[in-house]
Design brief:
This protein has about 190 residues and is α+β, with helices and mostly antiparallel strands. The protein has a single domain, classed as Aminopeptidase. The protein is about 30% helix and about 30% strand. The protein is built from five helices and seven strands. A seven-stranded mixed beta sheet has the order 1-2-3-4-5-7-6, sandwiched between helices. Strand 6 and strand 7 form a beta hairpin. Helix 1 crosses helix 3. The longest helix is centred in the N-terminal third of the chain and has 17 residues. The protein is globular and about 45 Å long. About 30% of the residues are buried.
């Protein structure tokens, strides 16, 4: 079974429940969210927006699956830029109940293959909070290299916080030049 798959509108109720149950667990790692974000209606807006950007080619929104195929989190390639850049950003989270079981590591490995082989990207970047050692290990297990620290990179948990930046570059020149108007982003 694949460790991740494209998110669907049918995932909205389970994602709303996962966010609700994991609100305190995820709060130190995410922007401050309104109460609406944790509802079915709020998650419907999030997922519909992600799927619209997916159709435009700028986002690849997946859910992370546990061993039985249940949704356990999300993993997303965002800010997909074509042309000479062929790059994207990676973000992911796994529920507290599934944390530490290798699901994020497997999902990152899976989406790397998609990014490089199917999407023809050259580079994936991820920014991780300095104190999030577990997430840094997930990236390192998947071959990402630390490239520096970005001061006050994102507003997380209500304040601008430094992030460790990681990147993974495709081997050789396997990426293709996907510069058709439909693939142009940015």
């Amino acid at each position: 079974m694949n460790p991740s798959r494209l998110v669907t509108p049918q995932d909205v109720p389970v994602l709303a429940e996962l966010h609700r149950v994991n609100r305190n667990f995820l709060a130190p790692f995410e922007p401050v969210r309104s109460d609406d974000y944790f509802t079915v209606a709020g998650q419907r807006v999030v997922i519909e927006g992600a799927l619209a950007r997916y159709q435009q080619g700028s986002v690849l929104p997946h859910v992370i699956l546990d061993g039985s195929g249940r949704v356990a989190g999300r993993i997303t390639l965002s800010e997909i830029v074509r042309g000479p850049f062929q790059s994207c950003s990676l973000g992911y989270w796994v529920s507290a109940a599934e944390n530490g079981r290798g699901l994020a590591t497997a999902a990152v490995r899976d989406i790397i293959g998609t990014a490089f082989s199917e999407l023809g990207l050259h580079r994936i970047q991820a920014g991780i909070l300095l104190h999030n050692a577990g997430s840094q290990r997930v990236l390192e297990r998947n071959g990402f290299v630390r490239i520096g620290v970005a001061p006050e990179y994102l507003k997380i948990a209500g304040r601008w916080q430094d992030h460790v930046l990681f990147q993974l570059v495709a081997d050789g020149d396997a990426s293709t030049d996907q510069t058709s108007p439909a693939a142009e982003v940015g």
